Amino acid sequence: xxxxxxxxxxxxxxxxxxxxxxxxxxxxxxxxxxxxxxxxxxxxxxxxxxxxxxxxxxxxxxxxxxxxxxxxxxxxxxxxxxxxxxxxxxxxxxxxxxxxxxxxxxxxxxxxxxxxxxxxxxxxxxxxxxxxxxxxxxxxxxxxxxxxxxxxxxxxxxxxxxxxxxxxxxxxxxxxxxxxxxxxxxxxxxxxxxxxxxxxxxxxxxxxxxxxxxxxxxxxxxxxxxxxxxxxxxxxxxxxxxxxxxxxxxxxxxxxxxxxxxxxxxxxxxxxxxxxxxxxxxxxxxxxxxxxxxxxxxxxxxxxxxxxxxxxxxxxxxxxxxxxxxxxxxxxxxxxxxxxxxxxxxxxxxxxxxxxxxxxxxxxxxxxxxxxxxxxxxxxxxxxxxxxxxxxxxxxxxxxxxxxxxxxxxxxxxxxxxxxxxxxxxxxxxxxxxxxxxxxxxxxxxxxxxxxxxxxxxxxxxxxxxxxxxxxxxxxxxxxxxxxxxxxxxxxxxxxxxxxxxxxxxxxxxxxxxxxxxxxxxxxxxxxxxxxxxxxxxxxxxxxxxxxxxxxxxxxxxxxxxxxxxxxxxxxxxxxxxxxxxxxxxxxxxxxxxxxxxxxxxxxxxxxxxxxxxxxxxxxxxxxxxxxxxxxxxxxxxxxxxxxxxxxxxxxxxxxxxxxxxxxxxxxxxxxxxxxxxxxxxxxxxxxxxxxxxxxxxxxxxxxxxxxxxxxxxxxxxxxxxxxxxxxxxxxxxxxxxxxxxxxxxxxxxxxxxxxxxxxxxxxxxxxxxxxxxxxxxxxxxxxxxxxx
Length: 789
Fold this sequence. Notes:
This protein is of the alpha+beta class.
């Protein structure tokens, strides 16, 4: 079960008692035995002030003094003298001394970079003083001006580099430089200088030409030191899956795609609804042995060799699953993994962010070469554009792989915490980035601008976008869209309503009535068609569940009915599967009880897949496809014992390549599916009525045909002198008669159960017409084109 018993983890302090009592729906723990009061919380409210939350009211001394409380540092035990302890609710009245909230006034400022403990002999155990909230508040006032560049800035003219790191609370900072990849000993170790007003540590290095050097920072906080990766590093040394990682000094003027940007043309959208987005993992796309690439399988360069398939398919944009450097992968281990298991692999989808500026080295020809990852990714993007394909990056700005990545630079600043100082976990992965804070927001906005400016990408898919504040993303889009030919940037993402915290305007599904610049995945559409999300073990319309077809129709028109409201078709992305959960073919096979091992059952999987994509590609919202769905892609269980649903892997983020690989050799039934989907994509591009781009126009042009059966439906779309008639029958063994009310004598079929073509099918099948009635065969979709009188 996903529901938590209580609102936080239960923590037992073995020092205080050997026996404890817990209660349902209560996250607190209670020592067994005689009642002893506890210090339930302690936070630094100012540099010389601590506020305590006690388990019950306590009588403070009437005379100024500590009232028995003591404060000390956890590392060395050095104490800080308490000048006074007063009632936080009424600090000026000493007689009002019976308090549950106590304010401790200190004689000296507490160090923000060390851990303080507060204790009292009458209370159960010492309590840690939470300083993160104060740190964050103070840090907001110590920031560099907007536009000030951070990171390692190389100057080819002077053969030097400026290193700049924002860390306002560090007491010292050292730059370490390494000539060699994965060097064991620094070639240079140099102290940096801090600007107190901005909190930036800086150093210009020109002793030798540092181009191609690798670097890290060592920060000092009191008695503690931390080795950190520059969050603005433009490239990295090879990363093997542990430690902070090292940045690389690169000359971005030299880090250009093969042949430069000559031949690059931007992909222009007249409107966002014209996009047909195709999601792919760089590794999955070519890792299969039968991909037959000359370049190393699973790499940026191998991907380029398979671009002709994507161009022929006809999609408008390729959405690359994370290519920003991620953490839990050894970049030097690129071998095909064939252990047939869904866990304990080097494989990684990439949703564990490590760097927001450096490309992932696992996909490059040489992770040790800091230029290879940049040049090869840029070359891939250039070649996709030359083929007429836009590029979207899947980015993860809502959390990081671990908190040390940013917390070791500015303790307590970059991550959201609850009122007790504990990290929030709305993301489900242990931390939530505080995107609303000045420098966290700037990190994201600078990153987005960098990828548009340097890599010419056409937009972004934001992971768990509903945890990111709207202001940050809208400002990022505004700045990036001012770059040449980028005013049509696509911003879209997971708008799940997951945020739980203080008032904040996040960019979730509820925001779709406020902006037409960002789109969200329409999970309502997905679930009514085939079920998904946390409910893969369920049926939808295309897997045989009767549905109120009014819901389907409204979602086709771009009007979700239950999960959120949208005032423009492009607010939504209609989809039936993505990298999460079962693939479309596996979902159909599991929920209908089919096996792809048998030709007849493969044919049924293909037929039901056609129904799903008929809805995706004939709806008014943006169309989204998971790469390989059109080829019956499956992620078989093989030897997996985790992340499984029946015989299939539903969460393959750490699965081996023999589970995740893109299918290049497929059965005849799936070849037919791929050709059919390709034809339907061509129809969507040819028929502008399927992409009206305006809610009022859709309301006027699109009408549902009255029909009682809940496993079949029809609708019409009249625009520009023609009427398109869409008919679907999801019944397994019964044809249906659908009365359209139209004279169909001049109708021409663009889609039937076997073909899809903008010019019309060659040999109509799967339907028949009698007057105004269309008889649609089981598991069939039909599109008719009729001149409007």
